[in-house]
């Protein structure tokens, strides 16, 4: 690599690092994304072939036409996905883009390996290509399953006896074949075995994600995101592209740390998320005992009176608010109460919704002022001075079983102490158990009233009723 | 193999860990989405494979890789920007 070109790639790497750095602070996050994008554009324009010569100035031929068409088609798909997706479906979109990246990484690794089978490859290079094919394929199929789970298809974990044994067997087969290929990368037999490895890796990706409950998908997507980064870095080694090595590795390591941070926010070790089959048959039944009391429904007009004459109201939003697209109605209600002199705050659990930060994004979209949003740790000490706690489509994050019931699968998870407030109004579509499949003790408390119905419709009724008071 | 490359790899691992060690939970999703866009650099790999394609099979699969990579990188940055736009709007109020 000539030195001016090397400087360009050093510059691009610095922009990636700064971009990620800026992304981790609310003030600079948007800038950070743009900085990283600028780094990507610079590196793309400076892209050279391994044998030298700019990709863009090497003359027009069929392959070059295909490259341009491919980029434009991908740009179209990406823009359509990014701008048409509803804010509530953001997690799915990230999973989808991650899967595509994984698929591309697998194809690049596989094709480079195929190319190398003509003359044989050094073991290190063959290993890197195989790693990219294997991890990329796994990330592709795993992300696809995560996408479907977030879309509401087979949300429940799928488990069967001996599952870990079968998965282990698939993994062993993959590793054995890859080990053999690393040192025997010549001839068409190698290509056939590579195809088998790719197919097994696709199956393993599905098998790995299927037993994990839908509520844990953010952690899974974060993990697969870091996997894709590592696959890209391996491709970088294989085709000797420094920008790919640096960018892929940065994503791999920061993604791994982010995955651990997410698990920490739920107070669960990462192994428990991946192999615990959280919310599966046996676990879901645990914690069901010890529920005493009865469900006490409430009507919207009665709930409106409670809210209108309260001094302090705390709203706990959850995934139900996202599904019902009710964030604008929530803001309307909060404005209406605010005008009457009621102090309204929003308590945001770190893992409310299906992605950390999900609720912040939705409420921000509805123009809820930033200073009304409170983090769980900040609001919990004063929950006993709250007159009405309005729980909108949140379930597991307000379940007191996490504090009290040692047999509950969510025991130890930090929760918002909604039950400490004087009255709790839970807005819920039906009495179905939460995403994790655990009975919620809160619903049976003496100070809890259930307001059944679609969150959006109920909130509209509440707004009208509060106005009438 | 070139040990310099391995050197860069190892340093990148540590930089990646250090750079996000203090991220608040509200930014977990945008950060994940932003890093997701950065690994879209796999587009480069797709372009290089396709540029050197010498058979129909490689052309077809290389084309798919370019489309996937392109969607990952462009879509990734755009979707992240859309998320973060929300965060900025409320501060300006």
From TrEMBL, chain B:
Its GO CC terms are: plasma membrane
Q: Which UniProt keywords apply?
A: Cell inner membrane, Cell membrane, Membrane, NAD, NADP, Translocase, Transmembrane, Transmembrane helix
Ranges of residues in domain NAD(P) transhydrogenase alpha subunit C-terminal? 6-89
Q: Which GO terms describe its molecular function?
A: NADP binding; proton-translocating NAD(P)+ transhydrogenase activity
From its record, what is one biological process in GO terms? NADPH regeneration
Which reaction equations make up its catalytic activity? NAD(+) + NADPH + H(+)(in) = NADH + NADP(+) + H(+)(out)
The protein's enzyme class: translocase
Q: Which InterPro entries match?
A: NADP_transhyd_a_C
The task this protein performs is described as: The transhydrogenation between NADH and NADP is coupled to respiration and ATP hydrolysis and functions as a proton pump across the membrane.
**Protein name according to UniProt:** proton-translocating NAD(P)(+) transhydrogenase
Q: What organism is listed for this UniProt entry? A: Terrimicrobium sacchariphilum
